[in-house]
Amino acid sequence: MTTILVTGGTGTLGRLVTERLRTDGHEVRVLSRHSRPYAVDLREGGAGLDTALAGVDTVVHCATTQRGGDERSAANLVAAAKRAGVAHLVYISIVGVDRVPLGYYRSKLAVEKLVEESGLGWTVLRATQFHDLVVRVLRALARMPVLVLPAHASDQPVEVAEVADRLAGLAVGAPAGRVPDMGGPEVRTFASLARSYLDATGRRRAVVNVPLAGKTYRAFRAGGHLAPEHAVGKGTFEEYLAVRFGGGEGGRRE
Fold first, then answer.
1. CA 7, 11, 13, 17: dihedral to nearest 10 degrees?
2. Assessment of whether the complete model's pTM goes beyond 0.85
3. Helix 190-201 crosses helix 237-244 at what angle (to 10 degrees)?
4. Which ranges carry the NAD(P)-binding domain (predicted)?
């Protein structure tokens, strides 16, 4: 039986990866800051991390934060994984980290490099944005009477459960290096996604597209974060909305 450690195993993606692997009969350890018995802050490393990795064959690295520290966390994880003799390190990244000059994307790209140069067997999967992230952004924007969106920009949201399935499959396979990107089934304008969200939640807002400036906006407008040639996801944004907001925003089923 394979012993697999999932970092960030209580998060949106990590929780589903853990469920998939356990269903398939693997021993899975969940590592997060508050999940016992492997409650470890990766940014600090230490003896707790060594204990969590003892006897582990594969690590699936899902832990991440936009508040900074991903590179330090990855460096600590790689060092401890090498000490423990881990055979395979799997990392989930984001489509466009090498094309969009966003700080968080640059951090993810730096972690990719740490994984690739670790000396461990490794696999890196890049995915487009999850449906729930798009909803969080639109919910925040919809707090205003007018929903203002970046003009001429699109997205390609993917169902997180499908990414979890793919990641779990990679975890039980041999190290594969950089595997093909995973994108949602449709490239959609932000305006069309916003209107679907408003319809699903019963909100009424005017949608206004506003041109922005800067390198990051130009990269998003150019589709640097998209993978239309890898539109392998099946679940659409509307299907996700129907499940999550069957009764509107106030009566959503979480």
1. 60
2. yes
3. 20
4. 8-132
Give the residue numbers spanning the domain of 225: 3-244
Pairing of strands 154-155, 88-94: unpaired
Cβ pair 134, 158 in contact under 8 A? no
User: What does the pLDDT look like over 122-176, one tens digit per residue?
Assistant: 999 999 999 999 999 999 999 999 999 999 999 999 999 999 999 999 999 999 9
Query: In which residue are the tokens 């399935």 written?
Result: 165
254 within domain boundaries: no
d(CA 228, CA 95): 11
Answer for the pair 156, 227: CB distance below 8 angstroms, yes or no: yes
> Is a pLDDT exceeding 80 seen at residue 56?
yes
For the chain, the domain total comes to 1
CATH number at residue 209: 3.40.50.720
Main-chain dihedrals φ then ψ at residue 229, nearest 5 degrees: -80, -5
Helix (H) or strand (E) holding 135: helix 131-141
